[in-house]
Amino acid sequence: MTKYILKRLAMMVLVVLGISFIVFTIMSLTPGNAAQMILGQSASPEQVAKLEAELGLDQPFFARFFGFWKGVLQGDFGKSYQTKLPVFDEILARFPTTLKLSTFAMLIATLIGVPVGVISAVRQYSIVDGVSMVIAMLFASVPSFVMGLLLQLEFALNLRWLPATGVASWQSYILPAFTLSASTMATLTRMTRSTMLEAIRQDYIRTARAKGATESSVVLRHALRNALLPIVTVIGVDFGYLLGGTVIIESVFSLPGLGTLMITSIRMKDTPVVMAAVMFVTIAYSLVNLAVDIIYAFIDPRVKSQYAKG
Amino acid sequence: MKKILALAMAAVMALSLVACGGGDSSAASDGPRTSLVYGMSGEPSTLDPMNVANMNTFTVTYALYDTLTVPDGNGGYEPFLCDDIQVSEDGLTYTITMNKEVKFQDGSLLTPEDVVYSIERTIAAGWAADMTKCIESVEATDEHTVVLHLNTPFGGMLGSLASPFFSIMSKAYCEAHTDDEIARAPMGTGAYKLVEWASGDHITLEANEDYFAGAPQIKTITLRPYTDKNTGLIALEAGEIDVFLNVNPSDIPTVEANPDLTLYSCDAASVLSLNMNVEDEILSNELVRKAIFAAINKDDIIVGALEGMGTPANSPIPTVCAGYSADTPGSVYDPEQAKAYLKEAGYENGLSLTLCLKEDNTNQKVAQIIKSQLAEVGIDVTIEPMESGAYNNAVYSNGDYQMTIGSWSAMFLDAYSIMYSQFHKDCYGSTGNITHVTTDELSNLLDTAAQASDDQKVAAYDAVCANILEHAYHLPLVYQQTTITTCADLKGVEANPMGVYMLRDFYFE
Fold this sequence. Notes:
Radius of gyration of chain A: 24 Å
Number of strands of chain B: 21
Largest sheet of chain A: none
Number of domains of chain A: 2
Structural class of chain A: mainly alpha
Strand content of chain A: under 5%
Distance between the termini of chain B: 62 Å
Number of helices of chain B: 18
CATH class of the largest domain in chain A: Mainly Alpha
Oligomer: heterodimer
Strand order of the largest sheet of chain B: 8-9-10-1-11-19-12
Number of helices of chain A: 13
Helix content of chain B: 25-40%
CATH topology of the largest domain in chain A: MetI-like fold
């Protein structure tokens, strides 16, 4: 098991390296110039050249890329071109908002999606099943910014129950987290329903019923436990989607997270900030996926025995 | 069983525990309101007034720093940090008598040395080169006097002194701190002090109780960035912010119908225009440019793209800038004439042009209307939207484009601020003259206009505009409005053409 985890962590380093190279290349290849963006349209070519030299933008591509990594290995992500603040501090200030938002969204999606999926499967073709499948379809297809605006209009403007924007209190997270969770919730519900339906038709369920197990025991202990593996996979994969999805949600709800930071930094060609932000998200995503893979072992003894081998 | 489910979520939960700090809720206090939340369209990258070119930031720096002059409300300027400014007859010497009572926020007195230091810092920073290049030298002649020597008369000098670039800073403070520190921890004479800057979330200002012009009534101002205009409007309607600038034109009727909100508007210090690259093979032909001028109907653009908000522009000068005249003749819509010009130019079978623009909903709609209007006279237009970095490269740095539309703004309310850099040969290319017109005739007219005194200014700029229209260099399209929407009980608000506001003038009833 430890060996497996170490192997995964080593792979994570490669993934981060690869992603940093891709992002750095994209930032270098897209037209536009950080110095020009900072100085504005009316800056003279001399001013731009001077600032480029100050920022090290006059160096060749690989010199800049390796320079960046040299800094990172020494624990220094560099300074933002725009604000001149250390990038690491900026990211640390923003990351908690994003992490809270996506974790909260994941919790909502799981706590609603999985039970609803189970009920829909057990009561297949009932009203509950029909209604929840229609809602799931709706949640999966409405774009998040539309849903965000609609929720803001209803719950913040009409009913005045919840704040529409900002992060002044924990209530501020409810609307954005719900909006963010909607599509994952829908995926989870449908996924749970179909894997549960499959599990319920298995022979061992009939056996369990035959030996007189209670219905709740049959559903939760025998069916759900077997159906859980794909569900956990979806949770892990979707967590990455949620981390990325915050980019839109943060902008709609005006939250000071990594997403808004990334958007402004990409627009301003602020490469150090974009690099660090993307690397943070990559690492968070990889760690969650690693955690999910470890959880497999606890759910499924077959997987655990495989870890032991390899 | 439950244990398993719980385990499945363990990783997720653990992460949330690490991340969850206590949410601090700030409750509104009772009694008369003394705190204001101001919604900005974006976060400032720095609060150093001499190192920014972002209008957003200027509202904040004006709260922290003061200037030597301020607009007097009648198109002129009056002394502010000083008691008096005397201009010599030849217009080359400005003698500034300082106010002896002004203190910086750290308690030190404002001295002429600080003024000299600040102006020299502005010149060195280079951001306001078009305002500072006429300054020969600046010196403190005695304890209360600063003398500004110009190398050429400059009609916009008093206006320049009111611009944020000429904010007065403390010499001692600036010398004791690095530029990066000054950018994050500003210290001036202003009506407000910076208390907190939480990156990406808010900037908090607190009233300076010792302010020389009297402490402001609003004691705490929180400035929050709202990059999405729909979100800004919702926050405004929900009472989460008290002020928001430039709501979408389509939302203006909603705002006006809301009794809790007040909308103020005025002409913006900018002109939405169509620029042409006169060095382009096709557009170097004056007849083609004249044909384009005659083919465009400005009223259609206002109705079709701008929700009826705006007036047809007759001059490249914004209406609110000194030097503007309503009598300046503009282009005349005449499609038949346009076809005649094209025929004369040898393009009776039509031609193709590219119109590039910074991606933006409004610009895009304007471009589509121009495309259809030009199609009617036989010009086929390809619209090419670009991300701002790419746009700056193509239009400013490389100058490799045919036509572009955009809103060009004045940095202070004088025609000089928008005209010189756009059309003078010295500003060719990336410094503003994207039309690439380099005739001595136009440059000389601009030089004359720059030196013109107030009573000659209109006539001087009329000559400039006539030259631009005659050669069809640049087509001003629409004067747009700028708006500020506030909660109804906020007073002391007056729409500002540049969208820059004096927070010290705001108060609650």
